[in-house]
Amino acid sequence: MSSVVRKFCSYHTLKKRLPILRWLPQYSLQWLRMDLLAGLTVGLTVVPQGLAYAEIAGLPVQYGLYSSFMGCFVYCLLGTSKDITLGPTAIMSLLVASYANHDPVYAVLLAFLCGCIQLAMGILQLGFLVDFISYPVIKGFTSSAALTIGFGQVKNILGLRDIPRQFFREVYFTFYHIAETRLGDLVLGLSSLLLLVLLKMMKNHLPKRSHRLPLLDRVCHAIVHFAGTARNAVVVITASLIAFCFECQNQHVFTLTGKSTQGLPPFRLPAFSDTASNRTVSFSEMLQNFGAGLAVVPLVGFLESIAIAKAFASQNNYRIDPNQELLAIGSTNILGSLVSSYPVTGSFGRTAVNSQTGVCSPAGGIVTELDLLPFLASFLGCFWEIQYGILAGIALSGIILLFNIARPEMKISDYSTVVVQFQSGLNFPAVEYVSDLLYRRVLEASPPRCVILDGLHVSSIDYTTVNGLRELIQTFQQHNVSLLFSNFRPKILSILTSAEIEGLRYFESTETALGYLHGDDPTHELDDSEKPLLNQTERLYS
Predict the structure, then answer these.
(1) What domains appear along the chain, each with residue ranges and CATH number?
(2) Which of 65, 60, 79, 69 is nearest to 20 (CA)?
(3) Which of 68, 107, 158, 477 is the right S-S partner for 181, CB 3.0 to 4.6 Å?
């Protein structure tokens, strides 16, 4: 017991749980300079994004700002990625809009509960659970969210009010009221989009900076690079100044977000009850109202963050710890809820800005074939209800996975002797399928032929499979033909032999098994049709 306590309290364990202890001793002035540049650039980006994301979440604009600052402090202590930044994101804001009913009390409580669940997952080392959610499900959800969020901004560009948020109704009423478009909002919106594109193109076509250039050229290069990197902030600041100038002239040309609460939010626990329609909603009722959101929001938040962290870790040649990331995200959401934050996760856009500006430490703060089905299920389902889209994609992925287990891929070489090589595992749902296939292809043929089962790729076997093979051997014996086994791994072979299957015959190679079938004469000269098969099998076996 004492050794366990010492191990838990050791400096090694402390460094694992507080990653800042790994990189802080190596910190340098060069790192500080790059981190300051990256932090300033991201800071200019996060303010306008926070305001926009709060609108997507259906909350007052100040809640986007409340959700933006806690992540940089917590992740600096607990995170394992130097690039990622935590804060409000488009996808998470869309989820909050779905499950918080545009009520700040629900949104803040959801952040607290989301953090508790993610923290518990990290403590229990459950980071591996994301391996069971396929890429098409994630891709379908994110594509659907991108389309939903993108079209959701059309009404704002057109200056339309009182448009429903449910996607299909939003599309209908946007086109229905399109004649009410405000010209000022349309011009400013399109001009902002054009400026964003131009700034991005300017940055992408910048020549490589050289110290040989004159000072003026280097200054211009730096200005263009900075403007292109922080283009979101540049556009928002420019548009805000234009709107301010018109308002000062008492010309109400644009639709404004309105006033926001001044100062920092109060530091307090989230409310565990709410008042609605002159009655008090209890904590248990709030949990029921969240429904599937208590599972979807923490999981999607972790998925989005870990996907971004892995992508940039691979690009910049370092590794991350998924379980530690869970601890970091969970802690951020719990502490963020104390300052009125709604759920946050890793932001791809701000992380890209962070990485491109040379951050040195966390202090800087469609697949083919079967995969198309879960992608479409998630993509289309998320337009109706987000939780249904994700669950539909996961369910369909599970069905496809089970189908592949029940219908394993097999390479069948049909010569004078049939050789069946399993290209994947052999599990009990597949036994009946294999038996039926051999019965139709071999035993019902005229005349019936012998079969060699090549188990080179079989890595596991269970009791039901063993019994199925026993019955298969008996069926072959009744038809007076041989069923032989070759190339099975020692572990699998020991299970088969310990089952004492009557009539089991095993050979170390397919060549030996074929020699046995030709009159027990290992020196038998094989015909030309069998030689290519043997050469291929020997290569695989070696």
Answers:
(1) 27-165+261-364 (no CATH), 183-254 (no CATH), 369-404 (no CATH), 408-541 (3.30.750.24)
(2) 79
(3) 158
